[in-house]
Amino acid sequence: MVSLRVEGLRKSFPGVVALDGIDLNVREGEYVVILGPTGAGKTTLLKTIAGLARQDSGHIYFDQQRVDTLMPFQRSVAYLPQNYSLFAHLTVWENVAFGPTVQDWSPRRRDQIVREMLNLVHLSDRRNSLPRELSGGMQQRVALARALATQARILLLDEPLRALDARLRLELRQELRTLAKYLGITTLHVTHDQEEAISVADRIVIIRKGKVVQAGSPKEVYEDPSTPFVSNFIGEANFLQGLLSRVEDGFSVIMLSDGRHVMGRPTNVPVNSQVVLGVKTDFCNVYHGKVEGQNSLTGTVVRSLFTGKRTTLEIQTGQGLLKAKVPSDQSLSEGSEATLRFRPENGIVYPIPNEGLQVALEVE
Amino acid sequence: MPRIKLEGVSKSFGKITALEQVNFEMQDGEYITILGPSGCGKTTLIKIVAGIWTPTEGRVLVDNKDITNTPMEERDLGYVFQNIILFPHMNVKDNAGYSPRVKGLSEKQIEERSSSAMELVGVLEQQGYLPNELSGGAQQKASLARAIASKARLLLLDEPLSALDARVRVELRYALRRLVKDLNLTAIHVTHDQDEAMSVADRVVIMRKGKIVEIGEPTQLYNQPRTLFTANFVGQSNFLEGTVQLVENGNAAVELRGERFLKVANTGFSIGDPVVLAIRPEHLTLSPEERPNTLRSKIEESRFMGPYTRYRLRAETGDELLVDLPTTEAKVADGSSASVHFNPDFILSYTRPSQGLTEALRLE
After folding, report:
1. How close does chain A come to B73, measured CA to CA in Å?
2. CB-nearest partner of A38 from B136, B282, B305
3. Where are the domains of chain A?
4. Under 8 Å CB-to-CB from B77, ≥6 apart: which residues?
5. Strands B238-248 and B251-256
6. Which class is domain B236-361?
7. What's the whole-number average pLDDT of chain A?
8. pLDDT, tens digit (0-9, with 9 covering 90-100), for A27-37
9. A339-352: pLDDT as tens digits
């Protein structure tokens, strides 16, 4: 098992800065997900670690050894690119045996590892099939087994589930984590899907425009997002802009444009500044009719979107269109009067972003 | 206006049967999603409605008029593809104005139609941009503008969100549903994503292996799925195999493995019937002590998932159980024992399938 350290990694392409000083620490055996929108630099980061792209500056270490001067095959990483392709004319067994064969392992050692890998991905009974005879999920498993059969020190997965059906992804993402943990392999998994990130990661590193925005456990990045972007990217959030008027009982009191007040978590922003309060739609409760009290915003339900266990209600209020994701048995019908409420400890107060809130929230 | 009816539609490609005897009817102004795993025939179905393919057997009727052999260009419809197809050398405005121009409308009418379409989907500000200067989401909005500028009343959406980032998809779902309803269009939308299917549709058609499995409103499919496949494909469920041992006033006692019993409300089954019980992870609860209708279980893993925490348990029957508790209530530690409580009203019961449970649930 090895740890991975990335220091001040920079990489530019003509007209684009893909990596803008990335620092990263991954512990031995840790499963880290790199999460960010398209164009954030995720794939470039993986390729640079794999040795398929060369950084402009910065260093990469496996344990204490500097590896960014090594050729890809000397780094001993298993890299599963987004558009992997299996050898179409080779069987499942031969595909998985490819790495060990090229590396000239003894037949006995090779066969043992191939057998073990096929076992792990539940494909032992398909060893003689050709890739085209397999479903998409099975092909994905073969590609994973092939990548792992070289007994690499680090596993790099680039959007490993993107090509699969949504429902199948739920099954395979659990398998990925279970497999990596069983092998104890240090893993970096790149995705744009925040649910996938939360469900498999020990730690999530959110990157945007080539920079790390926040890193932490799924719970930390979900419950304590450091910026409005993170707050809205992991889950979905409502934002209320106003003036931080005072601090009361340890909570921030914010005056909204209509003169009403809402309360949120304490903040470092000085009193009398313009601020934005972000609250996750998951933390918003909805009540039928008009309900008075702290942190209450009344309006009309304009749309209700059912997604099974939860329903998203869009409520038109004096503070704009707000959303609440509620358990489906607490849903309200379109057209009804509703009050959205949230607890002050779930409202996070941020300074108004320099680039403006709209731009700060852009997800692509 | 457009009422669409498919009568006994089948389609074969050589030896492969892509669609087998598909019958269904939709109303004017209805938003239908066709949901199913890869290879289920959903794309073939929408292409037959579009006129891209002709069925091997059966008829397609629009407002009772047989259009089975009418070529695509003579059908009055807008089509949006998964792989965004815009004219690369035309800006957004010219793309949006394409269909009115081909139809030979005056410059004034072209201007009106394209502007109103761009405004509706929210790309008016980007009208001067070429497709490659836009983000994926904006490009797909532009294709949507082009489709609706044709003034066709039937909108066909073929995996319209699949190429986009997860977070962008969620935003566009809202936009799609709003657009279709505001313009009173009839829409058929093909997807493999069950959340997407449920959140936008009036009714969902579930397909598998070239056949329609069931059709229903989203809440009905989620709460009362008629088949085991749907119970597993639309949201996740726990499944337990057993045999009915007692029936009283519509309530049954079902014997599971390990001589354990569960009470199930409202089943139509008789004593001796082999059944499968299904229940959603969010309908199970954990209690520290034994109660009626519980299974003693060991917690193998708990995982923070944002608004809820997912527990994976091994029940005394040997079955694996998934239990979702709101994160605020989730306080049980891994490795400890808990009793999983089954509310009889939330348990669904099905005839145990002759092909075996695994096969009945298979996702691909």
Report:
1. 31
2. B136
3. 4-223, 237-361
4. B49, B50, B150, B152, B154, B155, B156
5. antiparallel
6. mainly beta
7. 94
8. 999 999 999 99
9. 999 999 999 999 99
